UniProtKB/TrEMBL annotation:
Pfam family, one: ketoacyl-synt
Record-given protein name: 3-oxoacyl-[acyl-carrier-protein] synthase 2
Stretches assigned to the Ketosynthase family 3 (KS3) domain: 3-405
Annotated source species: Streptomyces poonensis
Organism superkingdom: Bacteria
GO molecular function: 3-oxoacyl-[acyl-carrier-protein] synthase activity
């Protein structure tokens, strides 16, 4: 299959850093951490989260429409509308048979399922809503967006845990390369800030317990990190075949030029101790892009702030990129958006390449001396011809995207 550079012509964001691309960029560059104590997690073992501020689904989607959608779809719809508007695309006038939707998600409509289960136990089966499955199934993320925008091409949801968003972008590029689409709406969405999900992640020991300082709880690559802060959000990108974008005179923000996907085949939650899987994914993304390690000027790291992940990822990046490109982890601001993280960070990487600005890593007060990386602690101007963005997921699933200047 010939290598295809996918043109990024539109982006949209709904995250704990804000609603809309410009608010997000201002927040991550400030940087202003979003983590706070969460009243809805009262009594949970961890009571912090990163939620989207001021998100009113009824106002943005209409009360009736919003009522029939789980939050993970609500977030995606708003981000998708921004991405399409940014791309200058009107779904009412496009050939929907040439438009695909490829999205990532870790666990679908968990809030809907949790509510339905309580109803089942407390009131009985006849009171369970018939909308449970149409709202909660993970594939409904792509299904609802395909319906909303009349996109009749391939409609897929991919699940690789916390690598889902980056995997989706890579698969979307493949659809363009294969000639199946001219346009693909891609990215990911996740809304798992619920007592059940938090209890599960707390039991794995993955979450920060810094309740006395929630804003300082998410601290990637810092010596005092103790886990991630769970968050929610959506990141959407419009990808096009370059010739299609040129033919309609579209502005190209950046290009997705490479994708590496690997499995550790090691453990269900822990990364391979030597980082073999993420190292292989980094090398695969570079090979797919036809680039050398020294071409890379910036890396948006997975950087969860968990003790093990940061060390393993840092060591792999150092081996592949010993010239020390500037690294950041935007999770210090947004927290960990789980299945949506890779897509949101892909948008941040596009913006970094386009604007020549690397966002800082929030809460990097005492860098871990074992991390042999040049991690940005302040916003840094830099010409970026090529950047990588890393995502690692439970099950040992890894995805790396290579993003190049337009």
């Amino acid at each position: 299959m010939p290598r295809c550079d996918a043109a990024v012509t539109g982006v949209g964001l709904v995250t704990p850093a804000g609603i809309g691309v410009e608010e997000n960029w201002e927040t991550v560059c400030a940087p202003k951490p979003a983590a706070a104590l969460d009243p809805e997690l009262e009594g949970a073992p961890v009571r912090m989260s990163c939620r989207v501020p001021g998100f009113d689904p009824a106002q943005r989607l209409g009360a009736r429409r919003a009522h029939r959608l789980d939050r993970f779809v609500q977030l995606a719809l708003v981000a998708a509308r921004e991405a399409l508007a940014d791309a200058g695309l009107d779904p009412a006038s496009w050939d929907g048979s040439r438009v695909g939707v490829v999205l990532g998600c870790g666990d679908g409509g968990t809030a809907t399922r949790e509510h339905a289960h309580r109803v089942l136990l407390e009131e009985g089966a006849r009171w369970v809503s018939p909308l449970v499955h149409p709202m909660a199934l993970s594939n409904m993320l792509a299904g609802q967006l395909s319906i909303e925008f009349g996109a009749r091409g391939p409609s897929l949801v991919v699940t690789t845990a916390c690598a889902s968003g980056a995997t989706a972008v890579g698969v979307a590029r493949d659809q363009l390369s294969l000639g199946r689409c001219d346009i693909v709406l891609t990215g990911a969405s996740e809304a798992l800030v619920t007592p059940f999900q938090v209890a599960g992640y707390a039991r794995t020991g993955a979450l920060s317990r810094r309740h006395d300082d929630p804003a300082g709880a998410s601290r990637p690559f810092d010596a005092d990190r103790d886990g991630f802060v769970i968050g929610e959000g959506a990141g959407l990108l419009v990808l096009e075949r370059p010739e299609h974008a040129r033919a309609r005179g579209a502005r190209v923000r950046a290009r997705v030029v490479g994708h590496g996907a690997t499995a550790d085949a090691h453990h269900v939650t822990a990364p391979h101790p030597e980082g073999r899987g993420i190292e292989a994914a980094l090398r695969a993304a570079l090979a797919d892009a036809g680039a050398s390690p020294r071409d890379v000027a910036h890396v948006n790291a997975h950087g969860t702030g968990t003790p093990l992940n940061d060390l393993v990822e840092a060591a792999a990046v150092h081996r592949v990129l010993p010239h020390a490109p500037l690294v950041t982890s935007t999770k210090g601001v947004t927290g960990h958006l789980l299945g949506a993280a890779g897509a949101v960070e892909a948008v941040y990487t596009v913006l970094a390449v386009e604007r020549g600005l690397v966002p800082p890593t929030a809460n990097l007060d005492r860098p871990d001396p074992r991390v042999e990386l040049d991690v940005a602690s302040v916003p840094t101007r830099r010409r970026i011809g090529l950047a990588l963005t890393n995502s690692l997921g439970f099950g040992g699933q890894n995805a790396v995207l290579a993003v190049a200047a337009a």
